[in-house]
Amino acid sequence: MDYREIIKAFKNKRILVIGDLILDHYIWGRVNRISPEAPVPVVEVTRESFMLGGAANVAHNIVSMGGQASVIGISGQDVAGEALKSMLIQKGVDCEGIFTENRPTTVKTRVIAHNQQVVRFDREDSKYVGGKILRGILAYINSVYRGHDAVILSDYKKGMISSALIRGILANPKAAKMFISVDPKVGHFGFYKGVSLITPNVMEASSGANIEITDDKTLLLAGKTLMKKLGCRAVLITRGEQGMSLFERNRVTHIPTVARKVYDVTGAGDTVISAFTLAHASGAGMKDAAVIANHAAGVVVGEVGTAITTPEQLVESFR
Fold this sequence. Notes:
The chain is an alpha/beta fold. The protein has one domain: Ribokinase (UDP-N-acetylmuramoyl-L-alanine:D-glutamate ligase, 3-Layer(aba) Sandwich). The protein is built from 11 helices and 13 strands. The strands form 2 sheets. Strands 5-4-1-8-9-10-11-12-13 form a 9-stranded mixed beta sheet, sandwiched between helices. A 4-stranded mixed beta sheet has the order 3-2-6-7. Helix 1 packs antiparallel against helix 11, helix 7 packs across helix 8 and helix 9 (268-281) packs antiparallel against helix 10 (286-300). A hairpin with a 2-residue loop joins strand 6 (106-113) and strand 7. It is globular. The longest helix has 15 residues, at 216-230.
């Protein structure tokens, strides 16, 4: 498989991203002293920045790699929600599927000093979406399948991804023909039965399989257990500095990491599922899609903050 040809084909693919929309707020500064009021550092703020997180970052990753993305999720009727939608539109993401609800837009604020995270605080309401809003979301999803090549469910446990939503998605015959990948969360594994792919990290895979992963033997057992429980076509377990392990029905492939340096793993899971789904939609087999996703992750962990990668960076990584 020519990876350059696959990456080049990204521009012809449109991915439907469904999930929890998050606005990442960064407060940057420096620490020169400890507070006299409590044993905590005093951060002298030098700048602030906002970045796309959760499903919004997945969509951003897709367009940054040359693909096209439509996003479906919820936001609040607040300044953060307007900022989130404005940033997505600026990136070229189709935002027609963003529904507003009477809840705050999810915002994660991280205070960074000297390239190290000092503290994080979250504004959110993570109750499940239901009733009229859920029915409207499912109707909208069912109306837009035809224009997309694959679906990503980005689950950050902020209320968008529920058992009812996934059952509604999979009940549509059109969905049965599509590649549906899930970036999962602990506590939700029972929701994902029948999807095409899940991409848990080691901790999530341990919880989902109810097997503590401590070595290669327990890793293999956990991966095979998840395959059997969920009926997926594949399970991709991301393993940090140990790379990735791809489980398919008849084989397991271990892919070593290509990251030369690791500064920040924030958003790496978003990049993995975006690159894998784009590559598979562009004609790559499961193994080749995982290799491409591994290279994409290697690029983003070398940067501080929720990062993205470009086709040029991907090609350079293969060189």
